[in-house]
Structures are given as C-alpha cells and as structure tokens.
Amino acid sequence: MENKKKFLNRETKIGLVVVLAIGMLYFGINFLKGINIFTPDTVFYVQYDRVDGIVKTSHVLINGYQVGHVSDIFFDYTKEAPITLELTVDKKLTVPKGTIAEVYETGLLGDKAIQLRLGKSTELCHKGDTLEGAVKGGMIAEIVSSLLPPIESLMPNIDSTVTAVRTIIQSNEIKNILANTDNATKNLKDASKKLNVMMDSDVKPLLSDAKRVTGNLDKITTEISKADLQNILAEVQSTINNLKLVTNKFNSKDNTIGLLINDKQLYYHIDSIAFNANALIVDLKENPKRYVHFSLFGAKDKKSKEKK
User: Fold this and answer.
1) What's the pLDDT tens digit per position in 147-186?
2) In whole angstroms, what is the distance from residue 22 CA to residue 306 CA?
3) Residues 105-139: pLDDT tens digits?
4) Which of 113, 115, 119, 122 could form a disulfide with 96 if both were Cys (CB 3.0 to 4.6 A apart)?
5) pLDDT tens per residue, range 42-66
6) Would you give the DSSP letter of residue 202?
7) How far apart are CA 5 and CA 240, in angstroms?
8) Which residues make Cβ contacts (< 8 Å) with residue 255, sequence separation at least 6?
9) Taken in order 186, 189, 193, 198, is the CA torsion positive or negative?
C-alpha cells in the first residue's frame, strides 16, 4: 500500500508539472501574439473583398496603439465581400457607430495591420456587430499613384520629343556632320603623324644646338669666374680716385684752372676788359676819322707847310 501511494503521488506530481507547462506554453504563445487571455475582450466582424497580408494575430490599432488583434478569418463565396475578419479588441474600448476598419501597410516591408478610424456618432457598436471595411493603398502604391498624373501629362511631350529626335537623326544634316567629323578626325591623325616627323627631324637638332649653346655659355661663365676680378676692381678704383683728384683741383684756388673757375674778381676783370673792347670797337665804327686823322692827314699837312 505504501509503494502504491508513493507511485500515485509521483504520477500526480508529473501530471501537475505537465499541465502547468502546457498552460505556460499557451500563455506564452498568446502573449507573443499580443493576446492577453486574462483580459475580457469584445468581438467585431469586418467584411472585405481582399485582405492581402492580413493573417491571424495581425494587430488592430488606433492611432498606432494596439487595442486588439485579428482572431479569425472566414471565407464565404456566396457573399459579395467573401472575406470576413473577426476582430477581438479590448472590452473597455467604446466603438461608436460609423467606425471604419481600414487595412493599411505599417512600413516599407509590406506588413499589414488594421486601423480603426472611430466614428463620431453618439451610438455605440455592440459585441458581434459588423464594422465598415476599407483598404488603404500602401506607400509604394501611393507614390505610384502620385507620380502617374505627372507622367501621363509628360507622355505627349516625350512622344513629340522622340519624334523630333528621330527626324533629326534621319536627316542628311546629321550624316553630313558625322562625315565632317570623320574627315576632321582623319586630318587630326595626319597632322599628328606630321608633327611626329617634325619632332624627329627638326626638334631633335634644335635641342642638340641648344645643348651646345648651353655648354658654351657654361664655358664663358667659367672663364669669367676665373678672371682676376680683384685687379679689375683695383684699376677701376684707381680711375675713380684720379677723377676725384681732378675734381678737387677744379674746386681749389691753389692752381691756375681753379683760379680761373673759382676767382670772381678775375671774372669781373675779364668781363670789364671785354666790355671796354666792345665799346672801343663801336666808337671806331661810328667815328673812324677820329683815329685815322692823326695817322694819315696830319703828316700831309706837315709836308705842305715845309714846302712853303
């Protein structure tokens, strides 16, 4: 009996552990799905034509905050909107009539969720009521839809532009331009060849002559550097000293040249002599008889008196 009691106690313990583990597993799975099994919920239904990306446990949001999840999905061919979603939301949530359950993308990866846009009615929806459904295009669809009108408006312009470009390409002017470009390329190629020949035949001798001239200049520079610059500078200094000595003599009154240059009295005396000589010549021109009378006519009168 004791062994039997021990065996039953052991089995009971194992069973309790298994049940507890299953309960924790169920609670954990629902928690990961966003389902709180301890909170009473309210169920609503929504019908759609299509619900791409919506699966069980998809989130039900209001302004980005999760208030529930998709608990089940039904499909009925007989209905106009064959897909029916069962939404389980928090029982504390009051849902006014006119509320729209909108399917939308939550990001660029294409994840879908249901957003409740609450109505403004004072009447409230009851458990099991069917809400109005709507599907909002994703971000890529909105971008494409926003770009389609401008693209459609640009299509006629693009068509006319392509036509104009095709006309220009098929015209003879483009062919002539291409032919002229080909000729210009050939001319450039011929000019390049001639330039290479010129470089080989003319430029190389010029470079060799320039090298030779540079060598001669180097030799001249070396010879100049080897010259006796000290003696040349000494001779130049001696010449400068002699010029300085001559200049000093000109400025000094100790010699004839210095007296002639620097003595003012001598200058005034010479100037006076020149003035008197000039006055004498002028008087001689004006009164020549005054000077000729004593020399010629006086002698003649003297001879006549003697004859008498």
Assistant:
1) 667 777 777 778 778 887 777 777 777 777 878 888 888 8
2) 198
3) 886 676 888 999 999 988 999 988 999 988 887 65
4) 119
5) 899 999 988 888 888 888 999 888 8
6) I
7) 145
8) 249
9) positive
99, 117 contact by CB (below 8 A): yes
State the residue for tokens 């409230």: 124
Going by C-alpha positions, the residue among 99, 92, 101, 95 that lies closest to residue 126 is: 95
d(CA 124, CA 98): 9
- Report whether pLDDT(237) > 90: no
DSSP state of 1: -
Whether residue 131 contacts residue 100, with contact meaning beta carbons closer than 8 Å, is answered with yes
φ, ψ dihedrals at 132, nearest 5°: -75, 135
66 contacts 60 by C-beta, under 8 angstroms: yes
Q: How far apart, in Å, do the first and last CA atoms of the chain sit? A: 228
Q: 83, 87, 80: which is closest to 52 by C-alpha? A: 83
Q: Are 62 and 35 in contact (CB under 8 A)?
A: no
Residue whose C-alpha is closest to residue 33's, from 1, 63, 68, 75: 68
Cα of 159 vs its chain's centroid, Å: 35
